[in-house]
Amino acid sequence: MLIPTRRRTWSPQGQTPIVRYSYKHDRISALAVLTVAPRRARMGVYVQFRQNNFTAILVAKFLRQLLRQLRGPVILLWDGAKIHKGPHIAAVEAASPRLHLERFPAYAPELNPTEQLWNDFKRHTGNSILHDKQDIRLHLHGSTRRVRRAPDKLRAFVRASDLPSAPWR
Predict the structure, then answer these.
(1) d(CA 117, CA 158)
(2) Which of 90, 105, 112, 94 minimizes the C-alpha distance to 163?
(3) Rounded distance between C-alpha atoms, residue 82 and residue 90, angstroms
(4) Is 78 in a helix, a strand, or coil?
(5) What is the pLDDT of residue 4?
(6) What is the pLDDT of residues 137-150, one digit of tens each?
(7) Spatial separation of the C-alpha atoms in residues 132 and 51, rounded to whole Å
(8) What is the Cα–Cα distance from 103 to 76, expressed in whole angstroms?
(9) Which of 22, 93, 110, 141 has the most CB atoms at less than 10 Å from its CB?
(10) Are 162 and 110 in contact (CB under 8 A)?
(11) 32, 17 contact by CB (below 8 A)
């Protein structure tokens, strides 16, 4: 969102730091998948950003693109969001026998490693003044490149979640 995330900062003693911004409620919608290749212990991240909200049709398209990129069986753990359900998602699942969809409990962000990814992105935009959607998009793409180059960070996102332990952790 364009509303700045406040973080701890420095200022001269006795002077309260003031961050001026124009109150805009614009935002970018984001979709992300953290991938784990158990045999090689390789980690990856796939993201997509949109000016408007995602729909189940767009999520289905994203899943098809993801399946073209990944080899072997794909087990997808995701929350119960409305855009993760419906006939378009069911059609992708039916057409791709190597895709297995598993749902997190109703509200369990602590299980979802992608929540750690979003927290990291927010930390890196803290105290930034983003003027428009293009600024948000540039920050998001920069954060994506940064975490893609840091497999240990991606692994830390998975470790920080409350998912059961696995050999690649």
Answers:
(1) 9
(2) 112
(3) 13
(4) strand
(5) 55
(6) 888 899 999 999 99
(7) 11
(8) 8
(9) 93
(10) yes
(11) no
The whole-model pTM stands at 0.78
- Per-residue tokens: 119: 């927290």
CA atoms of 148 and 58, how far apart (whole Å): 23
Q: Which long-range contacts (CB under 8 A, 24 or more apart) does 105-109 make?
A: 106/80, 108/79, 109/79
CA distance 129 to 14: 23
Taking a C-beta distance cutoff of 8 angstroms, is the pair 59, 33 a contact?
no
Residue 2: per-residue pLDDT:
47
C-alpha to C-alpha distance for 45 and 31, rounded to whole angstroms: 10
Q: What is the pLDDT of residue 121?
A: 85
Q: How many angstroms separate the CA atoms of 108 and 80, rounded?
A: 10
Q: For residue range 17-48, what is the model confidence (pLDDT) as tens digits?
A: 776 666 666 778 889 998 888 776 788 999 99
Selection from 66, 7, 68 nearest residue 31 by Cα? 66
The CA distances from residue 137 to 61, 65, 161, in Å, are 21, 21, 26
Phi and psi torsions of 115, nearest 5°: -60, -35
